[in-house]
Specification:
With 174 residues, the chain is of the alpha+beta class. The chain has helices at residues 7-14, 55-65, 124-142, 151-161; strands spanning 22-27, 38-41, 45-46, 49-50, 103-109. The protein has one domain. The chain has a 3-stranded mixed sheet with strand order 1-5-2, covered by helices on one side. Strands 3-4 form a two-stranded antiparallel sheet.
Length: 174
């Protein structure tokens, strides 16, 4: 999937260095990976690391939807910048390439693959449900009652295995 505006340019307008965390919302409907109508949440991404899904965000998702939380898998490819020639599920996690803040993708989804930009493809109920989740997550995060990731566990991973920030770049150009 391409974008009419370069993702690096988009990130300069969408990412602010003062952001403590980012919820990145995108329609993610043109795939066979997420087979659920509503919205789904990605694992947390921070500085090239794909971390476990936030337990706090899972709880908020259950409260705001009244259903079990829905998550979706991501790959290392999905957290690298567009322009490196590899497949990305879509641009939902591109903000992670431009910040050190933790990023969680929120995919507005359908049960079957449909073009997300098609007229009539977005259902107001699904959008409202996602927005309600975002508002509640922001309130809880601002009050210090919601963590996007476990800082101690993240520090342990970096200590054991090193930085993964190279995944935020276009990589070694052959």
């Amino acid at each position: 999937m391409g974008s009419p505006v370069d993702m690096a340019v988009m990130n300069t307008f969408e990412i602010d260095a003062q952001m403590d965390a980012i919820l990145s919302i995108d329609t993610t409907k043109g795939n066979r990976i997420i087979n659920h109508r509503g919205f789904a949440m990605s694992p947390t991404v921070k500085d090239g690391w794909i971390l476990r899904v936030s337990e706090d965000l899972l709880g908020i998702m259950s409260i705001t939807t009244g259903q079990l939380p829905v998550t979706f898998p991501i790959t290392m490819q999905d957290i690298t910048p567009y322009g490196n020639g590899v497949f990305h599920i879509n641009s939902i996690l591109q903000p992670a390439t431009a910040t050190s803040a933790p990023v969680v993708g929120l995919a507005i989804t359908t049960q079957t693959p449909v073009p997300g930009c098609a007229t009539g493809a977005s259902h107001v109920v699904d959008v409202e449900e996602c927005v309600r989740f975002v508002i509640e997550a922001a309130k809880m995060f601002g009050a210090g009652k919601c963590r996007f990731y476990d800082e101690t566990e993240y520090a342990t991973l970096v200590k054991l295995y090193g930085e993964m920030k190279q995944l935020k770049t276009l990589g070694a150009q052959a």
